[in-house]
């Protein structure tokens, strides 16, 4: 499941991931509230969540996703860095943090980790 409000980024990420063995994108959405709904209907193994989301930020989205789906793995992806962003993501329950600037192979590895 992909959660990001930048549609061009989501389209690029889908294009990158759709040809990877072992990865199926079950849905995408542009805000945290919809992510909670999508999680309930699709029950993904992994959610890739941007931190800078409208309606509910990615930190809160991560916390709430994990409350309703404890075995979900959340990989946070963001253009934000510094000020303890990765630490805050980990405290929210994210299993990984990736900076949007250098993703190509890293995102596939982060999604496929067990």
Can you offer a commentary on this structure?
The two termini are 16 Å apart. The protein has one domain: Response regulator (Rossmann fold, 3-Layer(aba) Sandwich), CATH 3.40.50.2300. It is globular, with a radius of gyration of 13 Å. The chain is built from 5 helices and 5 strands; from the N terminus they run E-H-E-H-E-H-E-H-E-H. It has 114 residues and is of the alpha/beta class.
Biggest sheet character: 5 strands, parallel
Radius of gyration: 13 Å
CATH architecture: 3-Layer(aba) Sandwich
With helices defined by DSSP (H or I, 4 residues minimum), what is the helix count?
5
Dominant shape: globular
Secondary-structure element order, N to C = EHEHEHEHEH
- Quote the CATH topology: Rossmann fold
Model regions low in confidence, pLDDT < 50 over at least 5 residues? none
Provide the spatial order of strands within the biggest beta sheet: 2-1-3-4-5
CATH superfamily: Response regulator
As for the number of domains, it is 1
Beta-strand fraction estimate: 15-25%
Residue-averaged pLDDT: 90
Helix percent reads 40-55%
């Amino acid at each position: 499941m992909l959660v990001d409000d930048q549609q061009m980024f989501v389209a690029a990420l889908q294009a990158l991931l759709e040809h990877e063995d072992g990865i199926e994108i079950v849905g995408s959405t542009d805000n945290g509230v919809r992510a909670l709904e999508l999680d309930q209907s699709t029950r993904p193994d992994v959610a890739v969540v941007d931190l800078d989301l409208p309606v509910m930020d990615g930190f809160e989205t991560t916390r709430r996703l994990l409350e309703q789906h404890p075995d979900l793995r959340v990989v946070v992806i963001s253009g934000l860095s510094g000020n303890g962003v990765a630490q805050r993501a980990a405290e929210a329950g994210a299993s990984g943090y990736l900076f949007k600037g250098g993703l190509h192979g890293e995102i596939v590895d982060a999604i496929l980790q067990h």
